[in-house]
């Protein structure tokens, strides 16, 4: 792992040379050239640094997923086009590349220590609140990402944040700004609305063939079968090797005896205590008073009063007092040494005298003793076998991996040679496109990328592909299908459904226009919506982020003009699922800074400052872009 490698040599000249080389690569070629070394199609260039189609597709899919989550998972694909999402994603990638290049030119850098601190704080890589290297590698392996590449991506992300943080730290807003923000942010509107379901406007009658043909010809690109491949592959994994390895009882018992100590649990003790607290800053007088109080409680214990009741009444340990002082079971090395020594010197049910620790004075009662226990051979047999197999399998795996790489290269037009040599099975996938197949192999991102490279399409074996930790594969083309136009007969049902939907939308648009006219003339909204198969939802007072209301309607209602007294404003909106709606805004209540408590006002000031900082930074980025040579290839997206 690159980060660990550098960290281990952080005080040597080598680390500074290596970091300097990385920075030089970023500055001259751009980070994208590292992330997309095999990008077939370039969608943009920034000062010569390429942004590849693969990078763009990842960003576009992430944006679509975000929108689906925002709209509750139900969103018309046409909305992506109407909102210009593709262009937005491309522009964002260009902005980021400009920021990276300019930040490096201005001297911004992310040190190895900064990167390590950032990674250590990510909860997904932590066990019991601490960074765990093994878990880190496992998590990245599950998403088919190598630590070195992921760390470079994180370094890039942190670099993007550096200039922005400086702007945000100095941005501020005035009282007048805050008053305006409060008015708009906390504004509420009384809104009624109704959606016109497309099903109400869908004609069940059959569509003549000539109309279907005409629609199909006008939309042929929507009915194209994508390029597809089938591949043969061999896979090698430490897990498969381990399953086939035999382990004798003799070896298992020998290993058990060698490691018996690791299967032995230490003695544990269960204790209850009463704590009279002494703080580190307490003077002698306070310490004496605490000791006197502890002695008084100890006298009550010796007089036979219930220990648990005394703990509830007198103990100043908030974690155990309510449980009658019970601390549960613990082993050595867990508690304060003085407390531990006293607890382990007691007999079961015995009570100590006063014990002074760093927390104060304790009265300890030993509740129970859990003796050391040695797990039997049968209890650890399977774990032992798994451990032995894993170690041997990994050793064999790396030896076979070297052979696999050599054979895949030397016999680049054949898989049977390496399969026979390593006793592997040649398997095959079903057809899959660039978007992936149904099985784990054809849906793996590295397989998808390799399967459509020119070398594999020309008949050569792929390089060895790391599918996950200690699991690799080599693929070879079995069959290839170029993208092709589907005949109308094959997609007739889809074309019919699309044409009916388009017609229904047109009828819905006309119905919306008619409904708006009636609403403006004062007709009853309930009756107007019912005539189009919809239902009018009574006007209620809602905020800008109101839950349970269609996002399209909500946005349109808050963009509408404010109504005059007793005269609502009516309008139309397109919902997230592609249906149409009409709405009415009956009155507006502006937010007020004075209506907020101090904490809420502070949050408003902070968010206002951040928003101002973001706006200022956007202006700075636009200035940087004017000095950059930017080439966009929008026809490639």
Give a structural overview.
It is a single chain. This protein has 637 residues and is an alpha+beta fold. It folds into 4 domains: 2-173 and 628-636, Porin chaperone SurA, peptide-binding domain (Triger factor/SurA peptide-binding fold); 187-221 and 488-589, no CATH class; 228-249 and 378-482; 267-371, Chitinase A, domain 3. 50% of the residues lie in helices and 18% in strands. It has 24 helices and 21 strands. The strands form 7 sheets. A 4-stranded antiparallel sheet has the order 18-5-20-19. Strands 14-7-16-15 form a 4-stranded antiparallel sheet. Helix 6 packs across helix 9. The longest helix has 34 residues, at 377-410.
Give me the CATH architecture of the largest domain, please.
Orthogonal Bundle
Structural class label? alpha+beta
Low-confidence stretches are: 1-39
Q: Which CATH class of the largest domain?
A: Mainly Alpha
| Count of all domains | 4
Helix percent reads 40-55%
- Overall, the morphology is extended
Number of helices: 24
CATH overall fold name of the largest domain: Triger factor/SurA peptide-binding fold
């Amino acid at each position: 792992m690159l980060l660990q490698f550098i960290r281990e040599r952080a005080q040597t000249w080598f680390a500074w040379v290596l970091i300097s080389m990385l920075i030089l690569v970023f500055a001259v070629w751009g980070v994208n050239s590292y992330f997309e070394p095999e990008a077939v199609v370039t969608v943009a260039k920034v000062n010569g640094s390429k942004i590849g189609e693969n990078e763009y597709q990842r960003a576009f899919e992430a944006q679509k997923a975000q929108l689906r989550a925002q709209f509750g998972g139900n969103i018309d694909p046409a909305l992506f086009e109407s909102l210009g999402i593709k262009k937005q994603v491309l522009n964002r990638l260009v902005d980021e590349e400009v920021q990276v290049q300019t930040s490096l030119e201005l001297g911004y850098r992310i040190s190895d220590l900064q990167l390590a601190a950032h990674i250590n704080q990510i909860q997904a890589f932590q066990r019991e609140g601490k960074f765990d290297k093994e878990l880190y590698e496992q998590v990245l392996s599950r998403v088919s990402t190598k630590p070195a590449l992921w760390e470079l991506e994180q370094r890039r992300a942190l670099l993007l944040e550096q200039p922005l943080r400086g702007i945000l730290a100095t941005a501020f807003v005035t009282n007048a700004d805050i008053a305006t923000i409060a008015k708009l942010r906390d504004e509420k509107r009384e809104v009624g609305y109704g959606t016109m379901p497309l099903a109400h406007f869908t004609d069940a009658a059959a569509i003549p063939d000539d109309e279907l043909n005409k629609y199909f010809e006008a939309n042929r690109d929507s009915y194209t079968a994508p390029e597809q491949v089938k591949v043969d592959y061999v896979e090698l994994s430490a897990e498969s090797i381990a399953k086939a390895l035999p382990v004798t009882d003799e070896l298992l018992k020998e290993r058990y005896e060698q490691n018996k100590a690791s299967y032995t649990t230490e003695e544990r003790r269960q204790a209850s205590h009463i704590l009279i607290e002494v703080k580190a800053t307490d003077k002698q007088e306070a310490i004496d008073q605490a000791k006197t109080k502890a002695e008084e409680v100890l006298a009550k214990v010796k007089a036979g009063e219930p220990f648990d009741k005394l703990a509830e009444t007198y103990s100043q340990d908030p974690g155990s007092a309510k449980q009658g002082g019970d601390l549960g079971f613990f082993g050595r090395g867990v508690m304060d040494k003085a407390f531990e020594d006293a607890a382990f010197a007691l007999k079961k049910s015995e009570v100590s005298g006063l014990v002074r620790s760093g927390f104060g004075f304790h009265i300890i009662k030993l509740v129970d003793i859990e003796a050391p226990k040695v797990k039997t051979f049968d209890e650890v047999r399977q774990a032992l076998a798994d451990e032995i197999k894993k170690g041997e399998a990994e050793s064999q795996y790396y030896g076979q991996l070297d052979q696999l790489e050599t054979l895949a290269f030397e016999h680049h037009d054949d898989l049977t040679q390496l399969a026979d040599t390593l006793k592997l099975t040649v398997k095959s996938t079903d057809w899959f496109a660039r978007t992936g197949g149904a099985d784990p192999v054809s849906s793996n991102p590295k397989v998808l990328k390799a399967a459509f490279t020119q070398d594999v399409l020309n008949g050569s074996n792929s390089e060895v592909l790391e599918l996950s930790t200690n699991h690799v594969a080599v693929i070879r083309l079995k069959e290839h299908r170029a993208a092709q136009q589907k005949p109308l007969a094959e997609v007739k049902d889809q074309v019919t459904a699309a044409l009916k939907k388009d017609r229904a939308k047109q009828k819905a648009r006309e119905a919306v226009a008619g409904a708006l006219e009636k609403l403006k003339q004062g007709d009853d909204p309930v009756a107007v919506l019912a005539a189009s198969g919809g239902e009018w939802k009574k006007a209620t007072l809602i905020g800008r982020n109101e839950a349970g209301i269609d996002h399209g309607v909500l946005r349109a209602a808050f963009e509408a003009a404010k109504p005059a007294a007793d005269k609502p404003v009516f309008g139309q909106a397109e919902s997230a699922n592609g249906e149409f709606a009409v709405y009415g805004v009956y009155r507006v209540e502006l937010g007020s800074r004075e209506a907020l408590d101090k904490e809420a006002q502070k949050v408003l000031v902070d968010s206002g400052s951040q928003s101002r900082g973001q706006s200022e930074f956007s202006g700075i980025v636009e200035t940087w872009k004017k000095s950059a040579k930017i080439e966009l290839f929008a026809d490639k997206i």
